Amino acid sequence: PQYIDNILMDNSYISQDQCILQVFFFTSLGWSELAILTVMSYDRYAAICFPLHYEIIMNPSKCQGAVIAVWLSGCISGILYTTTTFSITFCKAKIIHQFFCDIPQLLKLSCSNDYLGVIGVAAFISVLGLICFTSIVLSYIHIFSTVLRISSAEGRSKAFSTCLPHLFVVSFYISTGTFAFLKPTSDSPTAFDLMISIFYTVFPPTLNPIIYSLRNEAMKAAFRKLLLGGQFTRKQTFLSWC
C-alpha cells in the first residue's frame, strides 16, 4: 500500500513507523506462507497415502491447531526480525534501493557490527525453513511413490491434479525467494534486481488463487469460455463463481 501511495503522490518517502510495519508484515506473512505450504503438503500426503484414515488424521481439531501454529509462528518470526532489525544504529544515508523496506537493504545502512542479531535470527529461521522444505520433499516422495502404484489412469490423474498446483506454488515461491536472498545486495540495484523482488513478493500470492481455482470445474469452464471469446451474463458469471 505504501508503494502504491508513493507512486500516486510521486513521493518516495517512507516514515520509520511505516517501515517497521512493512518489515513485520513482510517477514511474518513470508514465514506463514511457507508454514501453510508445509501443512498443505502433509494434508495431501494424508489424503493420497492414507485415504481411508484421512478424516481421522486431519480432523477439525488438528486442522485448527495447525492454523494456530502457522499464524503464531509467523507473528513470532515477524517480531524477532523487526526488533533485531530496528535495534541497529543507522548512521549512513537513509536511502533504500528497493520499492519496500527490504531487510538486506536496511542492514547496509548500519555503520557497525550490531546487525549480528539479525543474522542470528535469519540463521534460526533458515534452519526452520530447511526443516519445512525437507518435510515437503519427504511428503512428495511418499506421494509420488503411492501414485505410481495406482493401477487406474483416472486415479493417477486425480492424484496429480491435487498435488501439481501445490507443488508448482512451492517450487516458485522457494526458488525465487532463495535466489533473491542469496544474491548479494547492490548499492545501485538494476531493473533486474527489482524484478526479482517483484517475483517473490508479488507473483506468488497473485498466482495462488488462480492456480488453486483452476482445479474447480466451474472455474475451468468459465476460463475456457473466456479464452474462446464467450460472453457472460451477470447471472451466468455469478453461477460460475459459485
From TrEMBL:
Q: Where in the cell is it found?
A: Cell membrane
- SUPFAM superfamilies of this UniProt entry? Family A G protein-coupled receptor-like
The alphabetized UniProt keywords are: Cell membrane, G-protein coupled receptor, Membrane, Olfaction, Receptor, Sensory transduction, Transducer, Transmembrane, Transmembrane helix
Location of the G-protein coupled receptors family 1 profile domain: 1-212
Q: Where are the transmembrane segments?
A: 20-42, 63-81, 115-141, 162-182, 194-214
Short name of one Pfam family: 7tm_4
Major location category of this protein: membrane
By sequence similarity, the record places it as follows:
Belongs to the G-protein coupled receptor 1 family.
| UniProt-listed PANTHER family | OLFACTORY RECEPTOR
What is the protein name stated in its UniProt record? Olfactory receptor 14J1-like
Q: Which organism is it from?
A: Chrysochloris asiatica
Gene from which the chain derives: LOC102837766
